[in-house]
Structures are given as C-alpha cells and as structure tokens.
C-alpha cells in the first residue's frame, strides 16, 4: 500500500488530531507509534475507492476512541505515555483509559469496540496493520427463497472485522478446545467429539467427561509408571480433574511468579500461591491513588488477586511429590506436562481399551462437567482456577467471595469426586483384576486453617456498613409523622434502597423505574423495561418482590404515581416547597452514609454486587442469580428461563428464602414496614 496525498477533508481531520496530540506530553511518542496505522488506513481507503468525504469519516471514526482515551488519562498515565518506548505499551496505556469513569460510562459494546479500534491502529507487528479497503461480497435473503449479492462498504467491513475480533476474545471456556475435539482415533478416522457445542454446558453425561471409573483407572495407571512420571502423572490428572488446572500447571513455578496469569507458584515453605486473572475493569485509582483507595476500603471489601490456596490433602501430597522432581524453577520442566499426560493416557487405554485419549481439554471438560452436576458455584471455581469462562465472567467479577468459602467448596468437591472414584473401582474390582485403590492415603482430610481474604468484586460493601446505613434509613422511617412529606420521602428511600439490594437492580433500574400503564400497583411482582443489545427490540423483565418488601414497595410507588403528571408509577421525592423531584439512589446513599457517621462513599452499583454475593453465599446457583439480575455475560441481558434447567418450581421458593435471610442479616424490620 502507498499512502496518497491527503485531500483537504482528510487533511482537516489529521490537523485536528495533531492539535489534540500537542496538548499532551506523550503526543510526540504517540504520533510516531500510530503513523504506520494511519498510513495503512488511508491507503486501504484509497484502494477501496472511497470518496474524500467518506475517507475523512472513516479516519475520524478510527481516531475518536484514541482522542477520548487521551483526554481521560490520569497525570501518571500521561507521564508514562511520554516515556513509552514500544507500541504495545502505548496501546495498553490508552486502553486502560477505557476503565476510567469516562470509559465505564460508555455502553459495554461501545467500550469493547473502542478497545478493538485502538488495538487495530497500534498493533505489535506490521503484519497486523489494519486493512479497511477491498470489496467483499455478502448475501441477503430475498423473499426467503433466493439470494442476492450485496457489496459492503469499507466502513461496514471495518465494523465486521471489529466484531470478529471481539468474538475471538470470548473463548475463555473453550481453552483447550482444539485438543479436546480435534484428535481422531486411528482405527476409525473419526473425531471423538464431533461437535464443540457440547462444551458450552458440560455435564457428567457429556462425551469426553471422565467418569468415576476412568478417573480411578487413570490414577492406577500413574502407579504403574516409574518416577518422576508417577508423581507428575498423578498431579496432572488430579489437578485437571479436581481443579481445572491445565495451562496453570504448565506455567507453575517453584521460584516465584513469572507474570503469567493465572499462575500457580509454590513457595519455599510449601504453600501454593495462585496469581489469578485480574478483571480488566478494576479501576487504576484503586491501586495508584492512596487517598481514594482508603476512602473506598472504608466501606467496601478489599479483594486480592494473589493468595494462598489451601488444598485438599490428596492434592497437596501430589504437589509436594511432583515438586521434588522440578527443575529450572518450574514444577513441570520443559515439556514434561505433555509427556506425563501422554504416559498416563497410554496406561489408561492399556487398562481400559474403550477409554478415549486424555488431553488437557478433556481434563478441563471433566472438571466443569462434574462441577456443574454438583452445583459448584462459578465464583468459587474462579477462586480455584484463577480463570473464569467468558460466559461466567460476570459471576466471578461481580461476586465477592471469602477464600474460606472457596476452600470449603474445593474440599467437598474433591472428597466427593475421589470417594465416587474409589467406590467405582471397588464395584468393578473383579472385572479389573482386584486392583488396589491407587492413592497412598485414605480420603480423611486433615483440618485446614481457614484462608483469609476476599476475591471477586472490588465494590462489594461490608455487611456492617450496610447495617448502619439501613439502621439510619429505618430510624427516619419509624420517626416520621404519618401522612407527612417526611413520611413519604423516608418510605420511598427505604423501599428503593432495599429493592436495589434484594432485586439486584442497577442504579439506572432504580432511578429510571417506570411501570407500564396497566401494571397493578399491588401483588408479588411487576414488569420493568431493561436495557437490551444494540439493534434489538425493547426488553422487559418480570421482577419478583420479596414477600416482606411488597407492602412498603407498593406504598412508595403508589404515592409516586399520584405525583406523576401522567399517573404512571415511578419513584418521586417531595422537596421543601412541595414539588416532586426525581429519586436518585446515589444521593440517598450519600445522605444515609453521612447520617450514620461513616467515612467514604458507598457506590450505588455496589448494592447490586452485595446482593449477588449474598445470594451466591446462600446457595442460589448462577443461572438463578443471572435470572434475577437479568444478566448473561459481557454486559448483555438475557431473560431466558431455559438456562435454569428442569427445577423451575423451586426457583421462587429458593429466592424468597434467600431474600428473607438477607433481610435478617441486614436487620430489616419487615413486620414494621407497613
């Protein structure tokens, strides 16, 4: 490609860009790093035959994310941008700005597109420079019978390329998928698992999942190997089937972290540290601004991404034995992970000819299949593996979970899985030649000290803080004179803040609450419009109210309907002049926090995180919580009951029981909220 002379329209866009760069210390460095990307963009637009005006629009759209990111860099980030020596460092600094308040204010899809556009203009390799030109033919259906070609413009091609790149980033759960579904058996020439759709929600009956007997035979095959393969094979099988560790074991270290995330590190005293995948949306100020950090942690939990991980004794012994053969600072040096797995796989197929070959993908599939069947919460799995799947990222990052709870889930899962394997071996002992249980010790677990700390959401409030806030709101409610302006305001504040927690509402769901015209202002629930994906029709969700909240909720909204010009129910407060004012959840929390004498600021959105964390700790599974929060993944909404499975009859009862327990934990006096 050759860069053409800029037309006046393009020159005006470039001049505005250069002027924006001059306002920042790192402008010259960024100009040098982005020059190849701009040249490739302009050349490809010229080859596509774009008009000058269209080229200018394409250029402006490509530069818009960079201009916004530049304007919202912190002073520290601006200084680091000026010192950036590589394109990769420059790109990461600009993408970090997408997690500032400006970036979080964008729609999730827009934020993802901005990040992709920045990456396309600042690639690490020249071969990855953007190509916006060319003519591609697509097809559209005409009357559902014929197809007609349609030419996509360069802008549409760029949008398609952006979406393709975003879809490629959604493959967390499919890690190891190629190894899992790719190998073919020599005797048949067919793939063992011909469809990858089974990976989406594996169960114990999903082809490829190790059953109890296969796990026992695989462990027995380890005992038939010489050292060090005996110890290494046992660790690989146990780590994969019981913990979902595949790549984690490949990168595991004996001499300290390498920077790979997630990564396992065994320290000199034998403790196992997990350096977990860190959610990208944790704000920079939580690390770099000590004043804001201190104010935040005064009312919110502190979470950690590096922590000691107490293991089930069987796993701990396997880890210690394999560590004796480590070398070069690695637990499994060189390619010993793959070789150990290959040796165990050969032994498994020798002892059980019908068994399929073991692969990292199959071990990972087995872990998640068994975990799904045993209601193993996804946040707890993230705490054990350090890596959430794409479809469950929100469950891991929106839920604060104590490490002690992760340890409890891990110990129970390991004990149940190993007990079932041992039982399957005993049942089939005669057929298999009376093999012994391959583990050195019985399954009785030594007591482990509870692990301290929290993982997950960085903005989950402390229980004691919320108790004090609600005590203040309840005091004002109980002291208000019936029928007064104060009584209306306190009832509205108490109802809406309690609803935000128990119904898992976003601040926008509370502040923008507007019920349909024919919605009865009574009963166990209500319909509410919620956000949907761009380009989709309006989306509505049915909210089920906790039984104890119904009376106060409808009292507040009925009064709000009387204050609305159109008579539709929405939350209103009455000011000192008697005029209705919109309710704002953040303003209500700020005032209650100050009245309770507590420092810092309580984020309105964090009430939703608290409710999700509570329901998860109480035992609601992730699909049930996703239904209540109207959440699927990556910020998108889904109101699909099919994800709940077959037990739909118990969903409401489980929710009501969990909501009642939540009310008790927060000292809500539902009996007096009438």
How far the N terminus sits from the C terminus, by CA atoms, comes to 73 Å
Helix percent band: 40-55%
The number of strands is 11
Q: Strands of the biggest beta sheet: in what spatial order?
A: 3-4-5
Strand content: 5-15%
Structural class per helix/strand content? mainly alpha
User: Uncertain runs with pLDDT below 50, 5 residues or more?
Assistant: 132-150, 162-200
Tally the helices: what do you get?
28
What can be said about the biggest beta sheet?
3 strands, antiparallel
Can you give the mean pLDDT? 81
Q: Which overall shape is indicated by the principal axes computed on the Cα atoms?
A: globular
- Rounded to an integer in angstroms, the radius of gyration calculated over CA atoms is 29 Å
Features:
single chain, 28 helices, two-stranded antiparallel ribbon, 674 residues, mainly alpha, globular, 3-stranded antiparallel β-sheet
Write up what this structure looks like:
This protein is mainly alpha-helical. Helix content is 50%, strand content 7%. The strands form five sheets. The chain has a three-stranded antiparallel sheet. The protein has a two-stranded antiparallel ribbon with strand order 1-2. A two-stranded antiparallel ribbon has the order 6-7. A hairpin with a 3-residue loop joins strand 1 (137-142) and strand 2 (146-151). Helix 26 packs across helix 28. The longest helix has 25 residues, at 403-427. The chain is globular and about 85 Å long. The relative contact order is 0.08.
In short:
A hairpin with a 3-residue loop joins strand 1 and strand 2 (146-151). This protein is mainly alpha-helical.
């Amino acid at each position: 490609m050759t860069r053409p002379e800029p037309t006046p329209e393009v020159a005006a866009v470039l001049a505005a860009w250069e002027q924006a760069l001059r306002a920042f210390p790192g402008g010259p460095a960024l100009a040098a790093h982005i020059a190849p990307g701009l040249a490739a963009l302009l050349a490809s637009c010229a080859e596509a035959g774009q008009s000058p005006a269209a080229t200018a629009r394409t250029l402006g759209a490509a530069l818009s994310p960079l201009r916004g990111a530049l304007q919202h860099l912190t002073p520290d980030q601006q200084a680091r941008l000026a010192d950036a020596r590589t394109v990769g460092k420059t790109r990461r600094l600009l993408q970090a700005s997408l997690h500032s308040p400006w970036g979080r204010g964008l729609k999730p899809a827009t934020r993802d597109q901005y990040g992709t556009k920045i990456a396309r203009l600042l690639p690490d390799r020249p071969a990855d420079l953007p190509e916006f030109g060319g003519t591609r033919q697509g097809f559209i259906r005409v009357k559902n019978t014929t197809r007609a070609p349609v030419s996509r413009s360069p802008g549409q091609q760029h949008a398609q390329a952006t979406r393709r790149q975003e879809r490629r980033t959604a493959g967390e759960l499919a890690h190891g998928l190629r190894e899992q579904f790719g190998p073919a058996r020599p005797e048949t020439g067919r793939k063992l698992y011909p469809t990858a759709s089974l990976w989406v929600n594996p169960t114990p009956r999903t082809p490829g999942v190790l059953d109890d007997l296969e796990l026992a035979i695989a462990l027995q095959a380890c005992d038939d190997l010489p050292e060090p393969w005996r110890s290494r094979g046992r660790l690989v099988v146990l780590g994969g089937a019981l913990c979902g560790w595949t790549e984690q074991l490949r990168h595991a270290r004996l001499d300290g972290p390498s920077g790979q995330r997630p990564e396992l590190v065994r320290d000199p005293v034998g403790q196992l540290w997990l350096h977990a995948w860190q959610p990208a949306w944790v704000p920079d100020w939580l690390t770099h601004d000590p004043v804001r950090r201190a104010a935040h942690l005064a009312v919110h939990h502190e979470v950690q991404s590096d922590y000691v991980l107490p293991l089930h004794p069987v796993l701990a012994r396997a880890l210690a034995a394999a560590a004796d053969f480590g070398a070069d600072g690695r637990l499994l040096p060189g390619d010993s992970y793959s070789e150990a797995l290959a040796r165990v796989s050969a032994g498994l197929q020798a002892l059980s000819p019908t068994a399929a070959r073991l692969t990292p993908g199959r071990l990972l599939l087995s872990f998640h299949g068994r975990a799904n069947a045993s209601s193993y919460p996804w946040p707890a799995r993230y705490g054990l593996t350090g890596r959430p799947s794409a479809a469950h990222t929100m469950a891991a990052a929106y839920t604060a979970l104590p490490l002690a709870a992760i340890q409890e889930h891990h110990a129970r899962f390991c004990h149940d899985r190993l007990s079932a394997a041992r039982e399957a071996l005993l049942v089939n002992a005669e057929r298999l030649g009376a093999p012994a249980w391959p583990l050195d010790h019985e399954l009785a677990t030594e007591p482990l000290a509870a692990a301290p700390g929290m993982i997950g959401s960085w903005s989950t409030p402390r229980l004691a803080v919320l108790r004090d806030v609600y005590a203040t709101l309840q005091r004002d409610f109980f002291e208000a004179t019936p029928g007064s302006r104060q009584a209306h305001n306190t009832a509205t504040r108490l109802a809406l803040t309690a609803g935000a927690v128990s119904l898992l509402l976003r601040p926008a769901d509370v502040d923008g609450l507007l019920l349909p015209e024919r919605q009865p202002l009574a009963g166990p629930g209500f319909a509410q419009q919620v956000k949907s994906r761009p380009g989709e029709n309006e989306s509505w969700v049915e909210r089920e109210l906790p039984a104890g909240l119904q009376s106060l909720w409808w009292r507040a909204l009925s009064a709000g309907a009387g204050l609305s010009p159109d008579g539709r129910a929405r939350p209103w407060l009455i000011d000192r002049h008697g005029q209705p004012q919109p309710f704002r959840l953040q303003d209500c929390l700020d005032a209650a926090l100050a009245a309770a004498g507590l420092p810092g600021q309580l984020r309105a959105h964090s009430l939703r995180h608290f409710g999700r964390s509570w329901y998860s700790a109480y035992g609601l599974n992730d699909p049930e919580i996703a239904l209540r929060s109207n959440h699927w993944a990556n910020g998108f909404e889904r109101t699909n009951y099919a994800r709940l499975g077959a037990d739909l009859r118990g969903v409401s009862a489980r929710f009501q029981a969990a909501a009642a327990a939540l009310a008790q934990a927060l000292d809500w006096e539902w009996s007096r909220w009438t």
